[in-house]
Amino acid sequence: MRQVLKAVLVAAGVVAGAAAAAPQLLERLAPPAPERAKPAALAPSSSREVVLRADRDGHFRTDAMISGRRVPMLVDTGATVVALSYDQGRALGLVSGGDRFDLRVSTANGQVGAKRVVLSDVRVGSVSVPDVTAVVLSPGAMDGNLLGMSFLGRLRRMEAARDRLTLER
């Protein structure tokens, strides 16, 4: 029994390590995007960036602005899309009591129902991304909100160094 438990823990560690390294590995393996010619009349746009500090647990938390409302978020590179709790989705007017949550999504707690939505704009500090795909999870599926890759993947740069995470658009 102990050997099985030890094997499971080692396997879990390997999977967690691979999940943490996957975004950087994929970025290195992907071919660079082709350069687009800039119109001669336009000056290069200034970059917008925000630096987040890790909390005591090493997580990056921030408040995002969605539909003009402040939404507390946990930055989660393992989440494919921005994920909102049912209560947050209701508060933002994205779902109502009669909505169906027939999209199945995998979470740390197993498969749950969700409704796909598109957020017109998600802003963290000075970093803003339009038309962000998100899901609102069924009632009771999740308490918090996740800032996932449907937002993070559209940034020019996302860089973690020690207790800081830099997001640049």
From TrEMBL:
Keywords attached to this entry: Signal
Pfam families documented for this protein: gag-asp_proteas (PF13975)
Coiled-coil region list: none
InterPro entries, sorted: Aspartic_peptidase_AS, Clan_AA_Asp_peptidase_C, Peptidase_aspartic_dom_sf, Retropepsin-like_bacterial
Signal peptide: 1-21
Signal in keyword set: yes
CDD domains attached to this UniProt entry: retropepsin_like_bacteria (cd05483)
Bilayer-spanning residue ranges: none
Listed GO MF terms: aspartic-type endopeptidase activity
Biological process, per Gene Ontology: proteolysis
Descriptive protein name: Peptidase
